[in-house]
Amino acid sequence: MKKTYLKKLKDPRWQKKRLEVFERDEWACQICFDTELTLNVHHKYYLKGCDPWEYPLEALVALCEDCHVDEKENRYEQERLLLLALKKHFFAEDIERLASYFDGAKLFHMPSVITDILGWFLYDENIQKDFIERYFKFLKRMGEG
Fold it and tell me: What is the pTM of this model?
């Protein structure tokens, strides 16, 4: 007999995983850093056939109730906007490379910091030009070595 999702959330394996997430995130919302509101564990993504406790810790994050509701309500629209922006500027192969870079990234700053840095880079032509010039010099040196 298949368990309903709500029953799965009462499973001791999920309760243990929830505690691991809360402890890792120091009992604070990872968006607003509130420590007073009720916390939820949010799945950043879902995998077909996986029970809630089977996800790696990297897929789970502590969010306060307010941020959790905002994330659930706004995620689809924000993803749609991102995809549209990518389609405007990149080809499929480029998007695949970007996805693999993000997937393999070892980001040690908060996502908002990374987003701000990327935004700064994308909106400043001088920073882009300087970076591209340095990149081509690097490639040239690598070809000479």
Answer: 0.72
Q: What is the DSSP annotation of 30-98?
A: TTT--SSSPEEEEESS--TT--GGGS-GGGEEEEEHHHHHHHHHHHHHHHHHHHHHHHHH--HHHHHHH
How many separate domains does the chain show?
A: 2
Domain range for 123: 108-145
Residues 10 and 48 in one domain: yes
Distance (Å, whole) CA 2 – CA 7:
10
Q: pLDDT tens, position by position, for the chain (145 residues)?
A: 567 888 988 999 999 999 999 999 999 999 999 999 999 999 999 999 999 999 999 999 999 999 999 999 999 999 999 999 999 999 999 999 988 988 887 776 677 788 888 888 888 888 888 888 998 888 888 887 5
Same domain? For 41 and 80 the reply is yes
Surface-to-core class of residue 64, CB atoms within 10 Å of its CB (0-12 exposed, 13-18 middle, 19+ buried)? buried
Residue 74 shares a structural domain with residue 92: yes
